Amino acid sequence: MPVAVFTHPDCVRHDPGPGHPEAPARLTVLLDRLRRDPGAEVREAEAAGREALLRVHPAGYLERVERLSESGGGALFLDTVLNDASWAALLGATGAVRAAVDHALAARGHAFAAVRPPGHHALASVGMGFCLANNIVVAARHAQDAGRERVLIVDWDVHHGNGTQALVERDETVRFVSLHQWPWYPGTGAAEERGVGNVFNVPRGPGRPAMQYVEDLWAAIAAATGGWTPDVILVSAGFDAMGGDPLGGFTLEPEHYAELTTRLRERLPSAPIVGLLEGGYTPSRLADGVAAHVTALG
Ligand SMILES: [Zn+2]
Q1: Which residues surround ligand 1, an ion (CB under 5 A)?
Q2: Distance from the alpha carbon of residue 134 to the mean position of ligand 1, in angstroms
Q3: For the chain, where are the E strands, in sequence order?
Q4: Residue 146 has what pLDDT?
Q5: In whole numbers, what is the pLDDT of the chain averaged over residues?
Q6: Mean pLDDT on 263-275
Q7: Catalytic amino acids?
Q8: CA of 36 to the centre of ligand 1 (A)
Q9: How far is the CA of 238 from the centre of ligand 1 (A)?
Q10: 42 partner at 20 to 30 Å CA-CA among 34, 99, 112, 140?
Q11: Domain 3-297, what fold?
Q12: What is the number of alpha carbons within 13 Å of residue 53 lying toward its C-beta?
């Protein structure tokens, strides 16, 4: 059975401007690829309403993002830039994320959300690192509202998910495991940052053999799930840890994402898995990485 991949047409209309790495082509190339892949079934979700974001972000922050977008766009914070479609893209992405979670929780199969803008750097009231809302924590809260209390978040984007960590580090119901380049943007993610014992950071230098990254991340996942079985697994699936990515120095290849995905399925067979697109800045490579992950989910 093909794996359901949820997206929304407005996700490609968000455009931070010429030369920006978080470009619409990331998603258009990916969706072209997945639409030709018999292992994937691309579906368009309904956009969410703003209330779907209020579980994670204060109303004042959301109003600021909406107003900036509706006035034509501009920089929200440094390199996190909006255009007139960004607010619509955010609600579209949120709808796709929630639809992917609903699909997986209904035992219709593992799922993927192919969305932009990405989310794991977004703090409650600060959009940063190309991220406006924290999609993965929105997904976690949506799953918990549906009765799945224990959520495992695996973040294999090459950058540390500082926003995700900040939003869950006092919450024992969520365990957060992150492999990321260190020292690197955004500067957080030291191994000593343990939250309430629910944070498992794996900071590593660039240029190492790919299987070293895989085994180190896997050891942290094993530690996080020793005697603790999640009700759902959410993957902050960035693909900028692939060799040659302009924003990272790791060496992963598509087969490594397939390997990690297969290991997650085998270790935690009762937990539905939902992957959410984060980074990955060479569109054709990003498409290869996602296709490998999605195929391994099927
Ligand atoms: Zn990244």
Answers
A1: 157, 159, 238, 240, 279
A2: 13
A3: 3-7, 40-44, 73-77, 80-83, 111-113, 151-155, 174-181, 199-204, 232-237, 273-277
A4: 98
A5: 98
A6: 98
A7: 121
A8: 26
A9: 6
A10: 140
A11: Arginase; Chain A (3.40.800)
A12: 31
